[in-house]
Amino acid sequence: MKNAPVLVLVGPSGVGKGTVVAALRARNPQVWVSISATTRQPRIGEVDGVHYFFVTPEKFSELVDTDGMLEWAWVHQTDRYGTPRRAVEERIATGTPVILEIDLQGARQVRTTMPEAIFVFLAPPNKQELFARLRGRGTESEVQIQRRIQTAEDELAAMDEFDHVVVNDTIDQAVADLEKLLGLVH
Ligand SMILES: Nc1nc2c(ncn2[C@@H]2O[C@H](COP(=O)(O)OP(=O)(O)O)[C@@H](O)[C@H]2O)c(=O)[nH]1
Ligand SMILES: Nc1ncnc2c1ncn2[C@@H]1O[C@H](COP(=O)(O)OP(=O)(O)O)[C@@H](O)[C@H]1O
Questions:
Q1: In which residues is ATP bound (predicted)?
Q2: Residue nearest atom 1 in ligand 1 by C-alpha distance
Q3: Is residue 1 part of a domain?
Q4: Is the model's pTM score more than 0.90?
Q5: What is the pLDDT confidence band of residue 139, given thresholds at 50, 70 and 90?
Q6: Which domain holds residue 38?
Q7: Which atom of ligand 1 is least distant from the CA of 34?
Q8: What is the CATH number of the domain that holds 153?
Q9: CA-CA 20 to 30 A from 111: which of 44, 83, 125, 164?
Q10: Number of domains within the chain
């Protein structure tokens, strides 16, 4: 049996990672998207165990110390985010296609431990559109937006490290590009 793919999706805050992955899942429910653990506070409408596992800093440290994280990183200078290892390993063992939506630092860690994964950068059509989407989402304060813009500049500068760049111009086209990389045919 051919191993199911692990696709690592990185892109600046506000580019549309969550939106594109949700649209891909709606068309391909057999694809599993890892649920990260984070120390950040939930946004309105976010559900623990669905969007993220919202954990205390103490619990996060415990997961790291017991080798429970496949990768983890400080993101936007304020909070830690990580991929719980066991759930991913279980999906790989059963041949389920896996998506990890993580930041650049996390992707670099996965490249050393799972070099066979497919590394994809989701890029905006241009920077103005990226910052408009980030503001348009309306979920962050101006201070938080400025931090995300700073992180975004670093992430955009690392685009060349990725095997594939998918531009999120329209959602449908970005989903089709990811489906092709995952070998999903319609
Ligand atoms: N390293 C790592 N980064 C993650 C993980 N989960 C989410 N992230 C990244 O954390 C960043 C912040 O995510 P989020 O708080 O949802 O805010 P957003 O980027 O503004 O939507 C994004 O770049 C995510 O890709 C994870 O498990 N590990
Ligand atoms: N292709 C697209 N065209 C226009 N707006 C988009 C597109 N993809 C996502 N958006 C919008 O951009 C904003 C940020 O998307 P989101 O999925 O939250 O980004 P991320 O998960 O990368 O931070 C949301 O308001 C979303 O509706």
A1: 11-18
A2: 106
A3: no
A4: yes
A5: confident
A6: 6-182
A7: 27
A8: 3.40.50.300
A9: 125
A10: 1
